[in-house]
Amino acid sequence: MNEQERIQQYVAEVKEWGKQVEQILLQRGEDGGDCRVDSLLSYIEHHGDAWTEDAIYELQRMVDEVYEKALVFQQNGQSAIRQEESGTEERQQTSIGQEENGIEERQQTAVRQEESGTEERQQTASEQEEESEAEERQQTYVAAGRHVLPPLPYSYDALEPHISREIMRLHHTKHHQSYVDGLNKAEKMMKKARETNDYELLKHWEREAAFHGSGHYLHTIFWNNMHPKGGGQPRGELLEQIKRDFGSFERFKRHFTEAAKSVEGVGWALLVWSPRSHRLEILQTEKHQFMTQWDTIPLLVIDVWEHAYYLQYKNDRAAYINSWWNVVHWRDVEERFEQARKLRWKPF
What secondary structure does DSSP assign to 139-195, as a single string? Predict the structure, then answer.
């Protein structure tokens, strides 16, 4: 079986799986659109037989999204079934008690039921909350050495002409992947040091974890900070905060651009929220982790390592930065700001 035949087999299996999910949702009275399965099946139906690597990548992303949403529907459904069964059993017991013991017994039973029901609902709510928190921790927890390369939220050619397909592919699959691999190795080696009580090379692996970890996390922010329909200005609270802290959006943009242009060697420029001073700041960092500032939260970042632009812009970093503004995904930055501004340390 050649590669195209394997791809066609995989697509057929995904289609069949999607139809099964759709059928189950229909039986439960759920809307397949809420689970995104309609979009998945439509994508397969209208795509045709020629599947590129990017198309398969997008298909896998959609499968992951459908699977996650289907799990949520399943968990909600199971919770409803358990509640219904519990309620039925209680009603049956109540009916028997009322029949045997008369009016007085029914009154006492009603009181006990109310108390028991209240207590049970409280216990159920508490158990559901604990289960939800445990599940959330499980989903968000990354064990040492288990980081993975996040998928791009768009295709490799989506940001053209501002950033070329070739740059995006190399940047994501080679450079970002190397940071993920480096972070995983460093974490595993530090775990081994703890288990063997041998810390002779700890300084080296701490440096590796700082370099590769910062590279991994900053790139993860960077991909989502961009969008094919980006550009323009932010809105709402973020825009107002920018005006308060920098005077105007134009002054902020000029400051950020100059900071990115003047990074010595390779590194990043970052717009950050400072929970300590309760305002926005613009920082530089060399490589991924040098000359930055702790106690801040990155909101908007630009990668000015040469691999981010050299194939397209050669050594003209300024041209790359000026073009990059056309793909800034301000909605992503606004969402990061909305979450970050909730964190406010005591100012000093």
Answer: HH---TT---PPPPSS-TTTTTTTS-HHHHHHIIIIIIHHHHHHHHHHHHHHHHHHH
